[in-house]
TrEMBL record:
Residues 19-116 form the CoA-binding domain. This is CoA-binding domain-containing protein. Gene3D superfamilies: NAD(P)-binding Rossmann-like Domain (3.40.50.720). It comes from Rothia aeria F0474. Pfam families: CoA_binding_2 (PF13380).
Length: 167
């Protein structure tokens, strides 16, 4: 059964303000598989945003793996600094625990990826004074606010009202 949605998140200007005030992002649930949303979002953030981005995945960290040329940490507590924003790519039932970790660490924002919804997690974050965003994509929001959103999700560098022709 789908959870009834009663929580209301920040509006577009508030989300823009969150992104403007963010300097560091930790991606919890980072994957080394290029087909996964976390990998796609991380690739975008590293190439098209001003943020310092950290990856958290205990399984990859235990194997000593790097992803996109960067180290992977076992937990939020292992990061070299407290991230401003914790972006979560985990199952809905895991969200309250990850949000509590972000609260305990002193993060300012928890951002739960598209399709992620857990009102208990939102309540934990908001009770601690964090910004909470659910069921939204940081990549999409950043690109939308900064002019880089294209149908395929890439900034083509072309501003035109004409349909692009491919050879």
């Amino acid at each position: 059964m789908t959870e009834k949605r009663t929580w209301v998140g920040p509006n577009a200007p508030e989300r823009l303000n969150i992104l403007r005030n963010t300097r560091t992002i930790a991606i919890v649930g980072m994957s080394d598989k290029i087909s996964r949303a976390s990998n796609f979002v991380a690739t975008y953030l590293l190439s098209s945003s001003p943020y310092t981005v950290y990856f958290v995945n205990p399984i990859l960290a235990a194997k000593g793996k790097t992803v996109l040329g960067q180290p992977v940490y076992a937990s939020l507590q292992d990061l070299p600094e407290v991230p401003d924003l914790v972006e979560i790519f985990r199952r809905n039932e895991d969200l309250p625990g990850v949000v509590q970790e972000a609260v305990d660490l002193g993060a300012k924002t928890v951002w739960m990826q598209l399709g992620s919804w857990n009102e208990e997690a939102a309540a934990i974050g908001e009770a601690a004074g964090l910004n909470v965003v659910m069921d939204r994509c940081v990549k999409i929001e950043h690109a939308r606010f900064h002019g880089g959103l294209h149908l395929a999700g890439f900034n083509t560098g072309v501003i035109s009202s004409k349909r692009q022709v491919t050879a």
